[in-house]
Design brief:
Blueprint (H helix, E strand, L loop, with lengths): L1 H14 L6 H13 L3 H14 L4 H13 L3 H14 L5 H11 L3 H13 L6 H6 L10 H6 L7 H14 L3 H14 L4 H13 L3 H14 L4 H13 L3 H14 L5 H12 L3 H14 L4 H13 L3 H14 L4 H13 L3 H14 L4 H13 L3 H13 L4 H9 L2
């Protein structure tokens, strides 16, 4: 059934495609790939390329889909096409991995050298752990490659910082970064390391300052904007967070998790329509993501649109009726619609699955009280208080003698 639905969806999108649909086809392709549906991904990305044949990103992504489908010759063609259009991509690494899997050590090492010579190379430990290179690990060429010094002194600092962090020597880590930054000629990665460290320590103001400095020196790393946006949220600077997340999505509309991050910032600004728009955009590509479905339901709940909220909570319970929070979400929404027996039923089910949740007892007590069961309500509020829900005390004092 899923395959039939996707074929129909694919035909609808493709038959109406033109240049402005390339983004939608690209997003569909990336989403299919992230979900492990590589054939679908190839089909969508192929159609996107027909709409926009000079976009290097499309070839890179389709090459990745071919690679993950074990269609290695097709992957090589796409990575080469990408590289011919844009030298500043990760095509060299993909070419190296593909040639390694094909058993061509010479070309694999050639492209890996190109990758290591670039400003945006991966860390050594990430490359060495990649299973694509398993057959090269004991070759002379591989050994000789790693005898060369590919990483700057700034990049090597990270290993020392990681060691200090594991030892919980946080002040020493900060002091080391302060010293290294003061003498570095290219400190953008050091600022990023310190921003990460400040985030772990809960110093979000310091983290934002460091992300500012890192971005000032290197503006082409989307992750920096995402992480600064998250730090802004912690500081309550939600408009600034929205600006950072929006910048990322303008550059790459398939950076799907960023829609959810931006939705959180919009919600804090009480811009619920925009928050819901972002989550529903995400759900267009990942329709069964239960966390996103719950988030959309709760955004409608906070926006006092309880009928729409119920649609999402019903949707989640159809997918999975084993989670207490899904029954609780729907139960508290029924409470708002004054359908008290439905609320009691759902909240009771939530307590069967999670019997020590004080807030659920609070809601259930309210539903029972409103339906005329004062004794049952007082019993529930007592349990809510016993399980740490202090709001229950107000109800006990007011209604239960």
């Amino acid at each position: 059934m899923r395959k039939l639905i996707n074929i129909l969806l694919f035909l609808v999108v493709v038959l109406g495609s033109n240049a402005q649909d390339a983004d939608e086809l690209y997003c569909r392709g990336v989403a299919s790939m992230e979900s492990g549906y590589y054939e679908e991904a190839i089909n969508y990305l192929t159609s996107a390329i027909k709409s926009e044949p000079n976009n290097p990103v499309l070839y890179l992504k389709r090459g990745e889909a071919f690679y993950k489908s074990d269609l290695l010759d097709d992957a090589l063609n796409d990575f080469q096409e990408n590289k011919s259009m844009d030298e500043n991509t990760t095509a060299d690494l993909w070419l190296s991995k593909t040639y390694a899997r094909l058993g061509n050590e010479e070309k694999s090492l050639y492209y890996l050298r190109n990758h290591l010579s670039s400003r945006y190379h991966l860390k050594e430990k990430m490359i060495k752990k990649d299973s694509a290179f398993d057959n090269l690990q004991y070759s002379d060429g591989w050994y000789n490659l790693w005898q060369e010094d590919w990483y700057t002194k700034e990049e090597k600092v990270e290993e020392e910082i990681d060691y200090l962090m594991k030892k919980e020597m946080y002040l020493d880590a900060i002091a080391m970064l302060d010293e290294k930054i003061s003498v570095s000629e290219d400190p953008y990665k050091l600022y990023a390391y310190r921003a990460e460290l400040n985030t772990k320590l809960g110093n979000f103001k310091g983290a934002v300052t460091d992300w500012d400095n890192a971005i000032e020196l290197e503006r082409r790393v989307p992750d920096y904007y995402i992480k600064r946006g998250k730090a802004y949220i912690e500081l309550g600077k939600f408009k600034s967070a929205v600006e950072d997340f929006s910048r990322v999505l303008r550059q790459d509309p398939a950076n799907f998790s960023t829609y959810l991050e931006r939705a959180e910032a919009y919600a804090e600004l009480k811009e619920f329509d925009l928050a819901i728009r972002d989550v529903t955009t995400y759900l267009r590509y990942f329709e069964n993501d239960q966390q996103a479905i719950a988030l959309c339901g709760n955004l409608h709940y906070r926006n006092e649109n309880y009928i729409e909220a119920l649609k999402y909570f019903n949707r989640n319970l159809k997918l999975d009726n084993s989670k207490a929070e899904y029954f609780k979400d729907r139960g508290k929404t029924y409470l708002k619609t004054r359908t008290y027996q439905y609320a009691i039923n759902d909240l009771s089910m939530a307590l069967d699955l999670s019997p020590y949740d004080g807030e659920t007892y609070l809601f259930k007590g309210i539903a029972r009280f409103e339906s005329g069961d004062k004794n049952g309500a007082c019993s529930d509020w007592n349990k809510a208080r016993n399980y740490g829900e202090m709001k229950a005390v107000e109800y006990l004092l007011k209604y239960c003698k």
